[in-house]
């Protein structure tokens, strides 16, 4: 069992009870729903906390009862009790994973962007490997993947110079957001005639899909829309009409935000999808600003690690290491085929431990 202590151990029951007690007066305030967004946020948090606390209490009682039965059980009865114990363990594990999802946007679709680092062919091939890995992960989970844009590499047959997709499924952003950062590949290069060892980098960016129920103010005058002909990997034309869309936004900062979408033959649909991604990028920019202000207020000097190296894939030595959780795998072929769920859960646990001790 993960936990049988009265305090709740890894579940941090005491702090959850304290937080729920803080929310109760707000929930009982008749003026709460004057601000529907804030009311919804508070109500959802309270519901989540109650579910964890009530389920934990039931499992704890079941565990205590099981321990009493162990003391009285005969040898023949032990096998049945072991099966019950395994069932309780599975329920406890499931509850623990529930506690790892506490973000306001965890239930949303994830917009995943892949960009190769410096290095030309090597980096583009690595980005293509990651592109396949995340698509295979989504397939394994039964998630839906919608490719918004993919620019192939002229020199690496399976490589990409840029790719962006939307992954839709249960808590897609909640799971995938911990994959954001720099991914490092070390291998004997198939593109090097001298069989030398190369190191390549690619960045993964994650944003939640922001829809109309979240207000993002965008002045149409600040947007320039260009249309062009869609192209596939290697630059070949995949459409005979100007259906691809490039949306350029510049307001409130010297930096432009550029979004492209060439997913289908419909320019209208590509405009809609590009606008959705633009809203998500503006949300991301605001979130970054908010976090920087919070860190400054606390006097923290370290940078926000939006692009920090999170994982190394060392193929010639047959291991993969997550630099945050310390978890290692020795089956890189399986990992690159999308078998990454345990690495994601380890990342979520690492993230949760930081929240708990912040």
Strand content range: 15-25%
| CATH structural class of the largest domain | Alpha Beta
Class by alpha and beta content: alpha+beta
Q: What can be said about the biggest beta sheet?
A: 8 strands, mixed
Q: What is the rounded Rg? A: 24 Å
Strand segment tally: 11
Strand order of the largest sheet: 2-3-1-5-4-9-10-11
CATH architecture of the largest domain: 2-Layer Sandwich
Q: How do the SSEs run, as a string of H and E?
A: HHHEHEEHEEEEEHEEEHH
* Helical content class: 40-55%
Indicate the low-confidence ranges by residue numbers: 1-8, 234-240, 300-307
Mean pLDDT: 84
Principal-axis shape: globular
User: How many separate domains make up the residues?
Assistant: 2
Distance between the termini: 26 Å
**Total count of helical runs of at least 4 residues:** 8
| CATH T-level fold name of the largest domain | Alpha-Beta Plaits
Task: Describe this protein's structure.
The chain is built from 8 helices and 11 strands. Strand 4 and strand 5 (about 195-210) form a beta hairpin. The two termini are about 25 Å apart. The protein is an alpha+beta fold. The protein has 2 domains: about 10-100, Methane Monooxygenase Hydroxylase, Chain G, domain 1 (Up-down Bundle), CATH 1.20.58.410; about 105-358, Alpha-Beta Plaits, CATH 3.30.70. It has helices at about 15-25, 35-70, 75-100, 120-140, 170-175, 265-300, 330-335, 340-355, and strands at about 110-115, 145-150, 160-170, 180-190, 195-210, 225-230, 245-250, 255-260, 310-315, 320, 330.
């Amino acid at each position: 069992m993960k936990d049988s202590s009265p305090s709740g151990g890894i579940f941090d029951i005491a702090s959850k009870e304290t937080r729920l007690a803080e929310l109760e007066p707000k929930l009982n305030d008749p003026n709460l729903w004057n601000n529907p967004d804030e009311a919804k946020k508070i109500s959802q948090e309270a519901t989540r906390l109650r579910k964890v606390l009530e389920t934990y209490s039931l499992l704890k009682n079941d565990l205590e009862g099981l321990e009493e039965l162990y003391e009285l059980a005969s040898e023949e009865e032990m096998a049945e009790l072991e099966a019950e114990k395994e069932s309780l363990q599975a329920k406890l594990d499931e509850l623990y994973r529930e506690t790892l999802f506490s973000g306001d946007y965890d239930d949303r679709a994830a917009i995943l962007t892949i960009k190769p680092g410096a290095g030309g062919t090597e980096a583009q091939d690595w980005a293509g490997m990651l592109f396949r890995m995340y698509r295979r992960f989504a397939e394994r989970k039964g998630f839906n993947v919608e490719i918004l844009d993919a620019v192939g590499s002229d020199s690496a047959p399976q490589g990409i110079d840029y790719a962006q997709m939307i992954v839709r499924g249960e808590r897609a952003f909640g799971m995938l957001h911990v994959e954001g950062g720099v991914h490092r590949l070390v291998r004997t290069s198939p593109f090097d005639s001298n069989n030398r060892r190369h190191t390549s980098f690619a960045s993964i960016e994650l944003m939640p899909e922001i829809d109309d129920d979240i207000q993002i103010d965008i002045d149409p005058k600040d947007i320039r829309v260009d249309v062009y002909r869609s192209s596939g990997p290697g630059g070949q034309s995949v459409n005979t009409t100007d259906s691809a869309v490039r949306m350029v936004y510049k307001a409130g900062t010297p930096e432009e935000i550029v979004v492209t979408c060439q997913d289908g033959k419909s320019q209208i649909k590509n405009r809609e999808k590009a606008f959705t991604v633009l809203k998500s990028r503006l949300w991301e920019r605001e979130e970054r600003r908010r976090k920087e202000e919070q860190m400054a207020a606390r006097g923290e000097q370290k940078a926000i690690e939006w692009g920090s190296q999170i994982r190394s894939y060392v193929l010639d030595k047959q291991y993969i290491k997550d630099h945050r959780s310390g978890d290692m795998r020795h089956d890189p072929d399986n990992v690159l085929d999308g078998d990454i769920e345990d690495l994601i859960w380890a990342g979520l646990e690492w993230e949760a431990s930081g929240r708990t001790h912040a």
